[in-house]
């Protein structure tokens, strides 16, 4: 059974915005009536997007949940819920309602974006959590919602949700929120496309594109195209065919095993015009190795005492003038394996990276 409380704010139902009650209620209906959680992939989004329906108190009614509640200083899940309700100006659950063991649902959406330019020094991706609670505005029926947010991992789920903050999607407080809030609109459109939810014609869609990846068969040609693009075509054709055949064979062995196997392929990618460096490198090293990779002298201006990832903006600016972009294979270690791509090929390289599971990072 669901029970919601009155608040004193205007409804979140802008007919032009996809972040509106009418849309989110349709997502909730699917979660409530069909499947209470799902994950899916979207174009341009790192890893999967997670969408889940949880409920107070039942989603916390297990040993780990009860231990987390106690550790956070509360007696039961309802007390945690009331602490959250304070943040979004929703009336508390009363003792009488607790005794009735009513359920209070909410939606939790998780996805990654690229970090801010400053954040790229430390992170490759930023996790965003959007938590949506339903409520009533000037009505006895559920007709509104409130949102909370943070960009931390919920290692302790109870502590994680308690650490969220109330947000207005139209008023981000910092650059990380600007990125996350803007992308949330596109994510919500992707969720609706994935669930085949028909959107009102009045909504101004964040994207006019198909947001879901098409079903594409990965073939030897897929790997051949990837190798040719990351090497900018400067690779022997027979070697391309031989290595592509090997990569496809490994790909078909399965996802987990493939990630172990692909670690052994970095020698090949380094041999076709790449630069392996630990996370510390000097500007002189960058100029030397990148010049060697592009076959022409590259010099770039940078402030004194600038090293390693702090050099990326200056390197990229110099390369962009030549139609290039510096990228790196994700070796899952503390080292970079840099390569230079033609600027016009970057998006296609990222698409092929998703298909082949050979992970590539923009810097």
From TrEMBL:
Top-rank taxon, per record: Bacteria
Transmembrane spans: none
Residue stretches making up the DUF6630 domain: 223-360
InterPro entries for the chain: DUF6630, DUF7821
Domain DUF7821: 23-198
Protein name: DUF4303 domain-containing protein
């Amino acid at each position: 059974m669901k029970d919601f409380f009155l608040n004193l704010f205007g409804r979140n139902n802008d007919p032009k915005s996809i972040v509106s009650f009418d849309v989110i209620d349709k997502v909730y209906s699917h979660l409530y009536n069909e499947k209470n959680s799902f994950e899916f992939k979207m174009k341009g989004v790192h890893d999967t997007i997670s969408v889940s329906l949880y409920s107070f108190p039942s989603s916390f009614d297990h040993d780990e949940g009860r231990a987390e509640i106690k550790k956070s200083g509360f007696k039961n899940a309802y007390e945690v819920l009331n602490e959250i309700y304070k943040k979004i100006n929703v009336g508390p659950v009363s003792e009488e309602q607790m005794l009735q063991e009513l359920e209070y649902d909410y939606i939790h959406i998780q996805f990654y974006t690229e970090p801010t330019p400053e954040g790229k020094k430390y992170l490759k991706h930023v996790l965003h959590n959007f938590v949506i609670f339903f409520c009533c505005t000037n009505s006895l029926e559920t007709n509104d919602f409130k949102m909370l947010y943070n960009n931390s991992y919920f290692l302790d789920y109870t502590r994680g949700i308690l650490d969220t903050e109330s947000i207005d999607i139209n008023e981000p407080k910092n650059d990380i929120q600007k990125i996350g809030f803007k992308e949330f609109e596109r994510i919500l459109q992707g969720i609706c496309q994935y669930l085949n939810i028909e959107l009102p014609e009045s909504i101004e869609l964040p994207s006019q594109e198909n947001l879901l990846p098409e079903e594409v068969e990965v073939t030897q040609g897929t790997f051949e195209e990837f190798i040719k693009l990351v090497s900018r075509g400067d690779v022997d054709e027979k070697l391309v065919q031989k290595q592509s055949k090997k990569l496809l064979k490994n790909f078909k062995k399965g996802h987990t095993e493939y990630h172990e196997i692909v670690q052994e392929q970095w020698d090949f990618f380094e041999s076709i015009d790449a630069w392996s460096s630990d996370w510390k490198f000097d500007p002189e090293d960058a100029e030397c190795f990148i010049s060697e990779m592009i076959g022409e002298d590259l010099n770039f201006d940078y402030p004194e005492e600038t090293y390693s990832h702090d050099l990326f903006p200056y390197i990229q600016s110099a390369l962009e003038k030549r139609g290039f972009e510096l990228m790196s294979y994700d070796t899952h270690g503390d080292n970079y394996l840099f390569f230079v791509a033609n600027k016009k090929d970057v998006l296609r390289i990222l698409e092929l990276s998703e298909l082949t599971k050979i992970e590539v990072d923009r810097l």
